């Protein structure tokens, strides 16, 4: 409601022809959600046509063939696709269970989307994956459209036995673990160069793995948890509920996607190397959509509301303070420093996209 008044005020001030971005003197930009006028529209994967799906997958392959630009960051990176995995790997210890979790990943997905568009002629927006639809369908994971070998990302790997000490999160029912068997990202077509160890100075070509854990998906990717995230009264509690805990004591949608698909041995379940699975960007696209849906419930305030610890798990601020709008995310050398206030709006000064359902 509040936002409608703000919008009306803006329209009254500048007239009704808002063809180009107009800076509002005296009004800080982080409170605006309509700065960019030609926002691209992010859609749910299954709503794309087969041609659009093909174009997206081809653009990912294209990025995977372009030479790396950020070798100073991870010398083992070979491709532009690796660049993004490298920046996440390097910063993993400082971007999870912190106040800037949602903004950091929002920016990463947007930069990836921009690379697909600018460097690989992809004309669409970054799609997202609404896993609630799959879980609620009651179908087996192997039948979910997103894993289709022809129109999706391919499915599980073959089952690999593990020892209990390999499974600190106690993921009980797994069906895979090996190299993805079908679809566009099998070993012959697509190799990861960084990981699985933390030495990113070496190039280590290996396959994309998946290790479906259907019970993790089925119990975490549910509307009850989604609604709990949406019901949080402020950003700090929102971010905390979004990430949950690094255990299954609290069901959570972030871990549900990573470990439901990645299990114990799958790439997307590896906290450092998870962006090696192209599905990462659709999962985080959906989490970003959730962030926007939450913001929209009280947009005027939530375009300015940030908090949460600078240091991981430092919810009592014993080590450092909370992030503020002036807090800077550093994705160098992929992007320069960017303040949280420039990432609050998906249609602000830095970002320019929206979602199909809001
Ligand atoms: Cu992450």
From TrEMBL:
<dbReference type="GO" id="GO:0016491">
    <property type="term" value="F:oxidoreductase activity"/>
</dbReference>
<dbReference type="InterPro" id="IPR050316">
    <property type="entry name" value="Tyrosinase/Hemocyanin"/>
</dbReference>
<dbReference type="Pfam" id="PF00264">
    <property type="entry name" value="Tyrosinase"/>
</dbReference>
<dbReference type="InterPro" id="IPR002227">
    <property type="entry name" value="Tyrosinase_Cu-bd"/>
</dbReference>
<keyword id="KW-0186">Copper</keyword>
<feature type="domain" description="Tyrosinase copper-binding">
    <location>
        <begin position="277"/>
        <end position="288"/>
    </location>
</feature>
<protein>
    <submittedName>
        <fullName>Similar to Tyrosinase acc. no. P55023</fullName>
    </submittedName>
</protein>
<feature type="signal peptide">
    <location>
        <begin position="1"/>
        <end position="19"/>
    </location>
</feature>
<keyword id="KW-0479">Metal-binding</keyword>
<dbReference type="InterPro" id="IPR008922">
    <property type="entry name" value="Di-copper_centre_dom_sf"/>
</dbReference>
<dbReference type="GO" id="GO:0046872">
    <property type="term" value="F:metal ion binding"/>
</dbReference>
<keyword id="KW-0732">Signal</keyword>
């Amino acid at each position: 409601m509040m936002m409608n008044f703000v919008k009306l005020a803006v329209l009254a001030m500048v007239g009704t022809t808002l063809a180009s971005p107009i800076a509002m003197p005296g009004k800080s930009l982080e409170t605006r959600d309509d700065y960019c006028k030609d926002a691209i529209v992010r859609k749910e994967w299954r709503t794309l046509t087969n041609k659009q799906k093909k174009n997206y997958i081809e653009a990912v392959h294209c990025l995977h063939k372009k030479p790396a630009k950020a070798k100073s960051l991870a010398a083992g990176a070979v491709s532009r696709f690796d660049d993004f995995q490298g920046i996440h790997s390097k910063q993993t210890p400082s971007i999870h269970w912190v106040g800037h979790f949602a903004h950091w990943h929002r920016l990463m997905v947007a930069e990836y989307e921009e690379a697909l568009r600018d460097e690989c002629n992809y004309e669409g927006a970054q799609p997202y994956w609404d896993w609630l639809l799959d879980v609620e369908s009651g179908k087996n994971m192997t039948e979910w459209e997103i894993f289709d070998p022809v129109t999706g990302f391919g499915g599980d790997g073959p089952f690999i036995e593990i020892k209990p000490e390999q499974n600190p999160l106690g993921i009980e029912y797994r069906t895979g673990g090996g190299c993805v068997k079908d679809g566009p990202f099998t070993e012959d077509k697509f190799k990861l160069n960084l990981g699985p160890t933390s030495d990113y100075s070496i190039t280590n070509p290996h396959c994309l793995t998946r290790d479906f854990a259907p019970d993790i998906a089925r119990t975490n990717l549910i509307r009850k948890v989604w609604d709990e995230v949406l019901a949080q009264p402020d950003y700090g509690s929102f971010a905390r509920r979004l990430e949950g805990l690094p255990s299954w004591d609290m069901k959570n949608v972030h871990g549900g996607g990573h470990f439901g698909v990645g299990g114990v041995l799958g790439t997307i379940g590896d906290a450092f190397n998870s962006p090696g699975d192209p599905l990462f960007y659709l999962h985080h696209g959906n989490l970003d959509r959730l962030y926007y849906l939450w913001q929209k419930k009280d947009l005027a305030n939530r375009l300015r509301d940030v908090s949460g610890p600078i240091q991981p798990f430092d919810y009592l601020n014993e080590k450092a303070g909370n992030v503020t709008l002036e807090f800077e995310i550093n994705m160098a050398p992929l992007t320069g420093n960017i303040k949280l206030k420039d990432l609050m709006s998906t249609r602000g000064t830095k970002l320019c996209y929206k979602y199909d359902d809001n």
